[in-house]
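tool_call: predict_structure(chain=1)
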Amino acid sequence: AGGVTATAAVTAPFQVNFQPAAAPAVPGYAVDAGRVYAPRAGGRTYGWSVYQGASAVDRNANKNQLLDTNVGVLKGARWDLAVPNGRYRVKVGIGDAGGPSTNTVRAEGAALFSKAALPRNTFAARAVTVSVADGKLTIDAGSSPGMSTRIDYLEVTPAAS
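tool_result:
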């Protein structure tokens, strides 16, 4: 079965902070430093469709590390997490401590934000419940221009059916 990736069940919240690899980690959050989709420590498989490491930033402008770091999403890029098919509650935090951002975020095609404009050091978070049918929970920025969407963190929790 070449190319088949094992999917670890999400039985508790799986939390990811988007940040440079060298930035201080947030307790309870996996680090996503913009690497491409692949197996990671802890038994999870996740990552980007294209390398995003150069767009991961630590602003050193906000005391909350979850908000001080982000990845500027490149045009057409998507982020995937291998999960068993089912329903999941997905919470995404957006904004940039270092400058204004205009954010579009979708989870499995369901809009969380659509061109949400935020001033510097201003943030927003929303959650949506989605169904996964292909073994991958997918986050993307729709057709927004590259680097306009700034994703800070992501939390995935199984939802009741």
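agent: Confidence is low (pLDDT under 50) at residues 1-5. Proceeding to next step.
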